[in-house]
Amino acid sequence: MKRSCLLACLLWLSLPVMALADAQIHGVRMWNAPDHTRLVFDVSEQVQHHLFALHQPHRLVIDFDKSVLKTRLKKDQLNNRHISGLRYARQPDGKLRVVLDLKQSVRPRSFMLRPSGQYGHRLVIDLYDRGEKPTVVQTVKKTPGSGKGRDLVIAIDAGHGGEDPGARGKVLKSREKDITLAIARRLKKLIDATPGMRAILTRKGDYYVGLRKRMKIARRHHADFFISIHADAFRNKKARGSSVFVLSNRGASSEAARWLAKKENASDMVGGVSLDDKDDVLASVLLDLAQTGTQAASLRAARSVHREMGRIGKLHGHKVQNAGFMVLKSPDIPSMLVETGFISNPGEERNLTSASYQTKIAKAIFKGIREYFNAEPPLGTRLAMEKHKHQAPAAKYVIKRGDTLSTIAQRHRVSIADLRNENRISNDRIRVGQVLRIPST
């Protein structure tokens, strides 16, 4: 009796294992980014797959192990600069084969994503141009130059995008990625319409950009400031208000450790100085100096934006907050992250999806940034030249033993803030023999 029960149990246990052996493929979506095409297959679980390319004509073959297709793939929607069509069939060995007909040779990359939000398991396949050359960006380097001066460059980062929708609204089902892009575009228009300023977007459409790549885009354009735009969410739908964040000291320390660990990479720069030929101590000092100045500038600008955001609506925090957000970790570019409101709050969701309120947010961020840079324009920019063209040349003062910034400011009847701004000083440390420029009163 015991033996028959044991056999029956073993037979029963074997049935679901066989039934669950095949992963289910529920569909495919395509996203177009400037530098690649992304295909996303929705699958029921982690799936084993193999990629290989064929030529004359160009094709990419995807073999799925132990997988079954649960719906017809929409072939007509997969047509862009890389893909002309899609075919699929079951192979004699039981594998499901998907063939992408290509318009050109590509460099494929694939990886799995775990369930997140509204999505389950996903297989992601990115197609890059074969032998693609780096995108040439027309920029003006951060040098004083001559004549009119360079434009001030603001990098605007619309959070999320593509396969990552961000937070979702409960009532209107709005998506954070759409709201952030709409506000980013409005902010860009305001900045571009201001003489001496121009803006660049880290993403221009509905596609995903990696967090570190967003930082690299800003650095490639020699951005003077980086603003990341988001919309918050919380389980309590009554939570409301906007917030402004800068990088925490802990986040800065962890990023400094990462940079120092990879300082042999020639592309890792701090203020235009390569770390690859510096010893550990000197590299650490250079990075610390860069981060200290960057964090101080970030905080001053963030306070200005925080004040303006408070004039158009409720603030979630009474002051600028600190966090370790990845997009704020660039050591050489002052940065802030603006949570424009709670998309999980029905009232704020309606506001965030309103074109007029999006414009109010963009204007508030713009006013805060403009106020900061009118007071502290970077050297060599058109704004700096406009500010100083009517001022008398700054006097010079050599620091003596016993001097402090406070006594020097009092002696020359200028504010400590103006003294700091004129000399690009972020704290009160000065040294004997240092030459300070005294701003005109």
TrEMBL record:
InterPro entries: AMIN_dom, LysM, LysM_dom_sf, MurNAc-LAA_cat, N-acetylmuramoyl_amidase_3. GO terms for biological process: cell wall organization; peptidoglycan catabolic process. GO terms for cellular component: outer membrane-bounded periplasmic space. It comes from Thiolapillus brandeum. Residues 395-438 form the LysM domain. SUPFAM superfamilies: LysM domain (SSF54106), Zn-dependent exopeptidases (SSF53187). It catalyses: Hydrolyzes the link between N-acetylmuramoyl residues and L-amino acid residues in certain cell-wall glycopeptides. Residues 1-19 form the signal peptide. It is an enzyme of class 3 (hydrolase). GO terms for molecular function: N-acetylmuramoyl-L-alanine amidase activity. Keywords: Cell wall biogenesis/degradation, Hydrolase, Periplasm, Signal. Belongs to the N-acetylmuramoyl-L-alanine amidase 3 family. Its EC number is 3.5.1.28. The lineage of its organism: Bacteria, Pseudomonadati, Pseudomonadota, Gammaproteobacteria, Chromatiales. PROSITE patterns: LYSM (PS51782). This is N-acetylmuramoyl-L-alanine amidase AmiC. It is found in: Periplasm.
